[in-house]
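Working notes for the structural subgroup meeting. M.R. asked for a predicted model of this chain before we commit to crystallization trials. I am recording the input and output together here so anyone reviewing the notebook later can reproduce the run.

Input as submitted:
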Amino acid sequence: MAKSKQAKKASFDIQDWLGIVILILLSAYFLRTCTRWHQEAVALSQGVFTTKAVVIDKKNYLGNSPVSRQFAYSYQFTLEGKNYEGDSHDPALHIGDSILVDYAPKNPAYNRVHNQ
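Returned structure, recorded in token form:
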């Protein structure tokens, strides 16, 4: 009888630790995502350069609806021999279309579609 209580207690402890690990990982992911959004917003608010980008064949699905499957294509631009991408957020754009994008001079990976 003592062995069955110890076995139940051991499995309960593993479940507790698994729950704690999952909670820590989810919290770390959330904090990382918020930090990146903040860094991008700050970088883009400190002055941007504008360049031309081309819409490429990389789909970004909008919303969570499995029925409509609406998407927007990504765009790509090149600076100093390095390619950078972003989500156009515009379902009306087609592959090969040209658009203007703003990017942070210190980190072009932070970029967005130019608002006119």
